[in-house]
Task: structure prediction
Amino acid sequence: MGLPALEAWAKDHGQAAFRGRQLHDWLYAKGARQLAEVSVLPKLFREQLSAQPPEGAFDWMGRSRELHRSIASDGTTKLLLATRDGLSIETVGIPAEGRLTVCVSSQVGCSMACRFCATGKGGLQRSLAVHEIVDQVLSVREVMEQRPSHVVFMGMGEPLLNIEVVLAAIHCLCTDLGMAQRQITVSTVGVPRTLPRLAELAHERLGRAQFTLAVSLHAPDQRLREELIPTAHAYPLEALLEDCRRYVAVTGRRVSFEYILLGGLNDQPRHAAALAQLLRGFQSHVNLIPYNPIAEEEFQRPTPAAVEGFRRALQERHVAVSVRASRGLDADAACGQLRRRLEGSLEPVPAR
Result:
């Protein structure tokens, strides 16, 4: 709930509108977990709310319980959080000089079945609600004691299969937590007929689409892409790129293409040349991601020389390119790894 909704809620419960503003501050600025913590509200009012029948009681603030915390040597912190219905989701805080990026999940599990991703091995259980997405950012802020500067929808799940909730979460992050759309990235492996809808809905719900759209390619041709992403058979590369062009035309924002480099499989100079040809004339940027190994697959991490050679080959062909630094390799940082390793074996971490 945003500020107007909380003000209306306060008045509906016999309080002045400013009580809603106070609650907003405790929810988003202070990260309150229980109504009892909101000491600025009248004690009698809090007691009345908590005394209502269970289905109407306000003893829960929408925060998730921490099940496990994994901290890498580089400071990258992965949290395994428990949802209200007993499922678990992952979120990661990635610190860097002067910034903190939070990688959030949009679903419990994933139906896209990408071979190189641990999340897809367990299938999809359900999509997340707005509060379950926003809570991930609040939880990382609380644990790392630092205000997040960026949010990337690159955790568990396919954001465009939960498109309306993802946009509502972006609205909350910007309106209630004070972030800017340009600090937010939405990553997708590609869902047929959703990119034009994303552009339209973003204008409708957010006023304009200023977040970064990142499309996961991972291969320069359809055959190899289907080998890595089985669901890609329903969305040919040319159709995906055409939808990307329509997205650029509607939003005026360039598309970022993600490309996971798998040693010996898609990291050769010929692959770079084919990728450059595929993206010719496109308003785009390529983000190269060295593979983070998972136990279920035998893919290899590319050598530093292969990564640099691929980057240089794209740059020589006038493709804007960068290499994502690998973080948290010693903390199960690849999407879904921690959840699969620990699922069913943990009790919640006691609240501080």
